[in-house]
Every structure is written in structure tokens, then in C-alpha cells.
Input
Amino acid sequence: MMIIEQKNDASVFRSAIRDWIKEALPNDWDALAERGTEDDHVEFQRWWFGERAKQGLAVPHWPVEFGGVGLGLAEQMIVADEMARAQAPMLDVHTVTLNHLPGTLIPCGNKEQQQKYLPPASRGTVWCQGFSEPGAGSDLASLRCRAVRDGDHYVINGQKIWSSMSRYAEHCILLVRTSTEGTKHAGISFLIMDMDTPGLEVRPIKQIDGQAEFSELFLTDVRIPVANRVGEENDGWRVAQATLSSERGLLAFEAGERSRHTMEAFYRSALDAKASWLEDDELRREFLTLLTDMQASRRFIRKLLKDHEEGAPPAVTAIASSQIKLFQTTLFQRIGDLIVRIEGVEGHFRRGFTPRRRLTGMTDFINSFGWTISGGTNEIMRNLIAERGLGMPRG
Amino acid sequence: MDLELAEVRESIAIVLEEQCTSLAIHAYVDGHNRLNAELQRQAAELGWLAIALPEEQGGIGLGAAGMAILHLELGRACAPGAFLATSVALEILARGPVADDEGVAKLIADVIGGTATLAVEARVGASLAGGSTWLLGEASAAAALIAGEGEDLVLVGIADGAIEQVSIWDETRSMISTDLSAAAPIITLVGMRPLFEGLFALALAADSAGAARGVLDRTVAYMKEREQFGRAIAAFQALKHRAADHAVHAIICEHLVWQAVENLEGNGPESRLWPLMAKANVTEKASKISTDCVQLHGGVGYTREYDPHLFLKRIRLNEAMLAANTALRDRANVALAEAVRNGADVLEVA
Output
């Protein structure tokens, strides 16, 4: 029996997941990952996706017709919580597949698109996102990647950037400019691009930590069928809002739970080792301060999920999402900063690929910028909170 | 429960919005009205002070959650009076093994009826040597709770000759000093100091979280009105980003208050961890918010006429009370270490 079939009894479901993870996942997977490469870890994530899929635990939140079971929020939280508790591998490579793709195609895609793309995605096809451009970051609507209609195709020329996991992706959700008339928001269309289309070049960008999770995409006369357009021509901005609003909530929940467990484990091993920082008044007290802020942030996320489930207006939950994004990601940075000071020189030792299973000095700290910059920079979050939340005028 | 809480909270907010206006508070601190007494009369009528007490003891029966909403709203309004000390001390007396004592029962009834207030030791256990100590409360307080030996508390009578009004910056509350050698112990509350400290911490956190919200709301409103360089200063990104940060931290403060509420009871490590940490983190966040709210007001923030300084002074007094936040974190650390060693999960959120 697949584990997902036990979803109707919360405690049975929870312990079934817990037992299964113990059995299915090698306990030393993070040590293996540290010895391997980034590519190895992507393969490992694909394997883990497949294992989860066998138990109905890959896309349980999707509707039944597309390969999920329409799992309710409370049960989704159980899955995320157990994955976090076991410090099981994240499905980073499938972030767009799991969230943005259904978030776009279910409300905005047509039947053919849904049938063509969602079932294979539920089995693990990798998707990436082609939204940002060198000249269009926070000001996404100013994007210039040009699509010109040629019969039943669009011909695309331009450049995309910060496209996570695009080296591994089979498909890309792409925002292009189909019109330069009217407002900048009014001339955008939303396309699906196959990553093996001629004219597309993917160039990895080395990140602050030496890895290359994201890439630049160069598009030269790339031909995409008009049938691959999601929504109407020039209505892509509205579609993109659906895509981007799918990003928060449960992802923040799982990130918060993972962080809780890594902090707890860090503290436990410090106690066991009688670590000297526990005798340092400043460091010890700061740890308590951050652990307490973490607790508040986890409560805030639960409140958002509850409000969302009880049907709070999207305008309200959108502001709460921005507030959580700002607080939680800043908190991750503050935690990284503290661990750097706690670990001293050892915090600077480079390890191999680190799969975020425990707190690791400089690695966590430098990677925390990924949290504070991606998904809408924290500066954009502050604008949204001030303008939409506090009713302040636009600058 | 949630719905009833929200309704009671709303009813408290409505009364305070009506009575405790900015004008009324300024008139009060300048000695032109007796807003504290007026609020206390209304509080007695509406049962606010006994909000946490079970109904059979004359209360509303909302427990720690009731304490939280009362002080969140009193703080948000910057309401003057002896509510914080009185409500905390009342709850302790009502829960104590002494509630049946005739004198104590009369005291409880008087406090619920609004004819008496109580005081609490501002820095708990700061003066065990029998010298003088500071009490949060009014000079007319009927009695005060102070730290006794070990985990005990002592209820002491406040003798007229032995108290002195202390002039403090927070003009919305009152502090007195008393000579403990002249104070008459009424009764000892054995083993109740931890609960008292948890409850005091919770009330201080709630008052500060409410005050942070109150001062921020007023500051945001001011920023939308005040124009410079031909536009509202709220349009300047450097300023609006600060306001956005404060708005988020103010929400976090309230979540910490609820973390304290849910972990107040019992003898487990969580009851020694979360109320104290809520007080420590919330009072510091609220201090930062109110400090910047004075700054965001510009020149008028430095005047007595505007509200931010009232909140700032109140929050900073909250921060100083109970115990230094550094000491609270050290105590919380002992509780956390105990929990982690024993495999107790103190981080679970319901």
C-alpha cells in the first residue's frame, strides 16, 4: 500500500512517513553528497523524487486528475514536517516543477497543456523559469526578450538570467515581450519552451559559493509554437502573477521547520561536546534570541497557512507572505552570521557540496544571500509591505 | 475560544479608543484629568482586571490569553494606570493556596471591584537583604507582591510611612519605593515565584507588543500627513523601508506573546523558557521600534506634545522590569539545555 493511502488518519499517516523515510533514505546521504559533485546531487534528488513518487508523496498536493491526491493543507504540513524532521533531501531541482508549474497551468493553462505537461511533471520532469533579464530584475515588467509572430510560431530573441536548475531542465516557463505598445505590463506573453529547442544556449553562472545552480539563457531565433502560449497574447503578466503567488507558504513552512531542526541539532551537539561558545555570554544569549525569533516566525507561517485555508483574501495573504519572506530570510542570514562567529576559524573551512542538513558557518552565511535576494528581493518586499500593507504612497 | 477572545479584545479596544485618546493621555500626564482612575472604574465595571480568573472567582475565565489581550490593548493605547501590576498580582493571589484566607479573599474582592490596586516588585528579588525595593504600582496600593526565600513570594502590606513616590520617565505608570523592613508580611505564597515571573513576563511582553503597534500606527499616519520636498515623507523609500521592517517586527512581537501564553502553565522547561524569552525579545524589539518612531517624527518627535515619547518611555521601563534581559536569556538557556538533554520537545508549535 502506498503511504499516501493512509492520509485520512493524521497520526497513522505521520508515523508511516516517518518509518518509510528511515527505511528508504540512507542515513549518511549528506556525507555522500559532500563527497560528490553538484551534478551527483541533482541525480540524487531525481532518485529521491522517484522514491517519493512511488509512495504518492511527490505531488500529493496536486489535483487527482494530474497525478496528485488533492492533499489538504494539514496533511501537506505533515509531509513537509516529516521531511524536515528527518532532514531528508530537499527537492530543489524540482522547485518549479512542484510549485510554479501547477500554479500556472491549473488556473491559466488550457486542457491540452495541462494533459501534456502535468502528468509527466508529476513523475519528475524538471522545469525552470525564464523570467528575469539582465535589465529586468526587481522591475520584472520592463523585460525586453522579444517574441515576433511568424505563422504558428513565435520567434524569440533575447536573454534571460538567474534561471535556477536550467542546466537540468526539460522545459522552461518563459516571459517574452510581444508588444511594445501601451504600458510595459500590457505587452508580455507567457510561453512554454522546450530546453532542446535550436537557438537556445545555457551558460552556467558561478555563484558566491562556487556552485552553479543558476544559468543565463541566450535565445537566438528560437521558434516556439503558438500553441505553447499560456493565456492570451499580451496577457502574460497576469499569468505570471499566478506563477509567483504559488511560491510561498508551504515552502516557507518547510524551510522554517528545517531551520528549527538544524538549530536544535546544533545546540544539542554543542551541549554534548561542552562547546566553548556556550560559556560565552554574548554568543549563547544571541543564540537564544535567534531561536526565539525562529519560533515566532514559525508561528507566523502557520497563521498564514491557516488564513489561506480559511479563505482570507489574496491581497491580505500576499502581504503576510511578503512579511514572512522578509523576516524569515533575514533571520536565516542572522543565524548564518552567528554561526560564523561561533565556529571561528573552523567556520571558514571549505567543505564539498553541502546539502543544508546542518548549520555550517560561512557556507550558510554566504548562501543566505540567496534567500534575501531571490524570490523578490527583500527591498521589493519592503516596498510591498509599506505600500500595500501600510498604505504609503509610491515613491 | 478564539472567537470569544477576539470579541473581548475588540470590546476593550473600543472602550480605550473612546476614553484613552491622545488628548486625554496628554492632559493626564500634565495633571489635568484623572484618566487612570476613570479607566480603573470602567475596568472594574467591565471585569478587565479579573479577565484571567475563572468565572466562579468573579472573573471572565480567559486565563493567560485574557491577560495577553488586555495588556496588548492597554499597551497599544498607552493607557495610564496600575493595570499591569494589579492584574498580575490578582491572578497570583487568586490562584494561590491563600485565596481562602479571609483577608486575602477580601483583598481579591476589593481589587475585582475596583476599590483597591496592587503593586509588584519591579525588579523581582532585587532586594532580599531587607533594604528598600522598587514597586510598580500606585502609592495607594493595598498590598504588594515581592520575592521571598527561594521560590516563595510574600504579600506585604504597604505602610504609609514606609513608601515614597518615585519620579520616573514613564508618566503613564507609577513607581514607589518601600522600606521592606517596615513592610508587614501578610502571607507567604509558597513556590509561586516561577508562575509569578512567567505571568509578569507575559504581561510586560504583551504591553510592549501592544505599545509597539500603537506607536507604529501613529507614526505611519504621521508620515502620510507630513510633507517635505512637495510630498508626503511616507513616499521616501529610505523611510518607508524602516516602517516596513518595524511593521514586521511588531507582528513577530505579538506571535511571541502567544508563544508565552501557550507555555505559561506547568513546571516543564517550556514554562521557564518561553515567557521569559518573550519578554526579552519583545521589549528589545519594541524599544527599537519606538526609538525609530521618535526619529521618524523628526523635530516634533522630540517634543512633549506628540505621542511617541510616551510609548518609548513606557516600553523602556517594561524592558527594565522583572530582570535584565541578559539574565532572562541565561535562565532560558538553562531551561533549554535541560529540555534538550532530556529529549523534551520545547519547540513544537501546536
User: Anything to note?
Assistant: The domain at 2-191 of chain B is CATH 1.10.540.10 (Butyryl-Coa Dehydrogenase, subunit A; domain 1). Chain B touches chain A at residues 220, 223-224, 231-232, 234-237, 240-241, 243-245, 247-249, 251-253, 255-256, 258-259, 274, 277-278, 280-281, 326, 329-330, 332-333, 336-337, 340-341, 347, 349 (CB under 8 Å). The first strand of chain B starts at residue 118 and ends at 121.
